[in-house]
Amino acid sequence: MTAWHQKTAHEIRDAVAKREVSATEITRSYLERIETVDDKVQAYTQVWRSEALAQAEAVDRKAASGQALGPLAGVPVSLKELLCTREGETTCASKILKGFKSPYDAHVVQNLKAADAVLLGKVNMDEFAMGSSTENSSIQRTCNPWNLNCVPGGSSGGSAASVASDCAALSLGSDTGGSIRQPAALCGCVGLKPTYGRVSRFGLVAFASSLDQIGPFSKDVRDAALALNVISGRDPLDATSANLPVPDYTAALTGDMKGLTVGMPIEYFTEDLNAEMRGLIQNAVEVMKAQGAKVVDISLPHSKYSVAVYYIIATAEASANLARFDGVRYGFRHPGAQTLQEMYHLTKTEGFGTEVKRRIMLGTYVLSSGYYDAYYLKAQKVRTLIKQDFDRAFEQCDVIITPTSPTAAFEFGAKTTNPLEMYLSDVYTISTNLAAIPGISVPCGLTAAGLPAGLQILGRVFEEAAILRAAHAYEQHHGLAMGKPALA
Amino acid sequence: MSTISKKDVDYVAGLAQLHLSDAETNRLVEEMGTILEYIEQLNELDTSGVEPMMHALEVTNIFREDEVTPSLDRDAALAVAPLHDGEYYLVPKILDNGDGGSA
């Protein structure tokens, strides 16, 4: 029999609901798995053993008394270090928040608890979600479960690695320019970035407020839909959360793509894309055609400007958001400061890591007097052009497919000396956040080196149902034997 | 415009409230220069007449009833502060009283 830690969230939920297994047994299976493999992968920064078992026992008591169980009953979940939780610490993998214990739960954490999920602990990330390899964590180095010499992607590298190594059934991460989809692709799991506003950001420590969105990592597409059902919806504490009904996203999973038109951006399928990745995407296109999809070429003429626009807007917003870490209300305060100004300077200088400082500097520069129009305003105008590209493309197609990442996982240190090269890891994912649209990455095979590749599927705003349907149909019929990483 | 000087980096570090070592400053001159040069490609585009995208999605004012609702408990908020007196956050002194700035 397949071990519980290898099963999907919906299999676990169904088994717990039918009382074929207790939530406690499931939780023990996952905790054991973490003990066995996580010293190699290092996804977890905190494991909440006793709290998780207590939550599982509460679910079991609920089941025993005949009460209705939540939609994630007994499902073990890991959480990115930037989601506020009353349990444990919320550090954003930064020295400046080391030891910070949030007095409240993020909206999505409240929803998970109400859905009877079991929270296993927190997982690693790039400091303040700034990075594409999780190498910018101040806590530890997380490895790719498929090859321990490679990065898991980032910034939600711990979320992806925990799911890919069967150390969590689901994980929640955040995506500002690809931070869910890129690590999902590099670790061979499913990662969904919902439409901006679909999920409340209350209790998500902010990086770039007009781009940030919380979303799930999962072992299959059905689980992503299930998790989205739980975390979506209006929250009075996040004024940007959309006041729209939340459909049952699992109802969209028809298993076929009849009547769906799939667009392929001509700008992405050029000589610049390596042949192996192009071959894997081409295979996916054939599967989609066989499932009834119509495939058309589309154009996103401004896509080449996405990374430039992103590194103005995201750093500008980050420089404003991170100003709050001043040593007054929470987190680290430098003990040596004699005056208020000195306290600000010493606290930030000591508390922030290299990449975070680099982005604060860039963001401060592009917003500084004399440069605002040339950089920030210009970027906002080009952001409009990028969004209009998508509006026009979606008149011709229902979903758009691209590679998630230009390459599979790379080795540690391969891109750390060149920030711009690291930024270009997100070349296919960034425009999604700029246009506020939803996107999902679904595994589409292994490279010759045995590393997973991801197919990205994008949709119109608030049409998560369409991308989930396409991703699910592809997953059901792709015929790939992905297997599992060869961890002990 | 793509080049950024050591003086610019020092000025921006002051705005960002960061102390940079000489080595860090020199590295940032180079790295920010490279990134800004990459960003320059936006100038190829004529954006006159294009509205800036100020919000991710269309926004409308959101009103609610003016009712008192529970907010974070003061003790819970103060408990996570580096220094407090039970009522207020404590910080090093802000105003210079003429003794050279030491508290």
Helices and strands of chain B, in order, run as: HHH
CATH topology of the domain at 6-44 in chain B: Histone, subunit A
Q: Give me the secondary-structure category of chain B.
A: mainly alpha
Q: What is the 3D shape of chain A?
A: globular
Largest interface: A-B, 71 and 55 residues
For CATH, the homologous superfamily of the domain at 4-251 in chain A is named as Amidase signature (AS) domain
Output the structural class of chain A. alpha/beta
- The strand line-up of the biggest sheet of chain A is 1-3-2-4-6-5-10-11-9-7-8
CATH architecture of the domain at 4-251 in chain A: Alpha-Beta Complex
Strand content of chain B: under 5%
What is the chains' assembly state?
Answer: heterodimer
In CATH, the topology of the domain at 4-251 in chain A is named Amidase signature (AS) enzymes
- H-E order of chain A: HHEHEHEHEHEEHEHEHHHHEHHEEH
Distance between the termini of chain A: 18 Å
Give Rg of chain A in angstroms: 21 Å
Distance between the termini of chain B: 43 Å
Q: Catalogue the unreliable spans of chain B.
A: none
Total of helices of chain A = 15
SS elements, strand count of chain A: 11
Description:
The complex is a heterodimer of chains A (488) and B (103). Chain A is of the alpha/beta class and 488 residues long. Chain A has a domain at 4-251: Amidase signature (AS) domain (Amidase signature (AS) enzymes, Alpha-Beta Complex), CATH 3.90.1300.10. Chain A is built from 15 helices and 11 strands. In chain A, helix 2 (23-41) packs antiparallel against helix 3, helix 5 (157-164) packs parallel to helix 6 (181-187) and helix 7 packs antiparallel against helix 15 (464-477). Chain A is globular. Chain B has helices at 6-15, 22-39, 74-79. Chain B has a domain at 6-44: Histone, subunit A (Orthogonal Bundle). Chain B is flat. The mean pLDDT of chain B is 89. Chains A and B meet through helix 9, helix 10, helix 11, helix 12 and helix 13 of A and helix 1, helix 2 and helix 3 of B.
